[in-house]
Please model this.
Amino acid sequence: MPELPETETIARDLDREIAGDTIVNVAVSHADVLREVTPRTLRTRTIGMTVRRVWRRAKLVVIDLASGDRLVVQPRFTGALLLDAGDLPPTERRYSTVAFTLAGGRLLHYRDIRRLGTVTVMSPTRFASYTDAIGPEPLDPAFTADNFFDVLRGSRQAVKRVLMDQRQLAGVGNIYANESLWRSGVDPSRSARRVAPERAAALRTALVDVLTESIAARGTSFRDYRDALGERGAFAARLDAYGRAGLPCRRCGARLIGTHAVDGRATVFCARCQR
Model:
């Protein structure tokens, strides 16, 4: 967390808000979030650079700079990119680790309460080599049901683990793996290679639908996630599985089971509906 819908929301917000603006200063208050660059290198490669566009790859927020470099942020569990026009609450500003001052006067904070996320600058070549290890985007129209079935049948692991493996599929984390498996009626612990083609197609449809719906709702907020404007996502109210262990299944009424046995993460499923 944030997963694909949350980072997509942040990237869209920032592209709308800061594309064309120029970075005029950088303040690093917690250098332990930096990767592959020092505070000095970060300043050298970003100050004076105009933001060309902001986009998402997997769970990364990518800020393209006029130099060709890419400012790459991976929020992980408690990270957020927050715009500050002087009205950001002190509780949010307190956890700022890196602050970029924009020519228009606003600040762009990388706020991270637990400081588990990362900030770096990559050349196009470095970015390509870094992202080559990441799997296809599930929302890419070119990623078909046949492609998805090929991913599943190549693994003996539990299907939920495959969904969350960034080498196999980009951007899917625990929340949306739980939701798509519940929607498609697939047991999270089922071996991926034992998911029949028609059920794989149903799972892909469920995954695309839940990701698209969450983006429309601006993501899922439980505690730390905020969009670039500091607002909470609204999709939590629409979750059918994640966070509902012990409650009735909305499809059949059976009690939802919560376990950590599948992949060490919180897995919630219906033993009656999901096979």
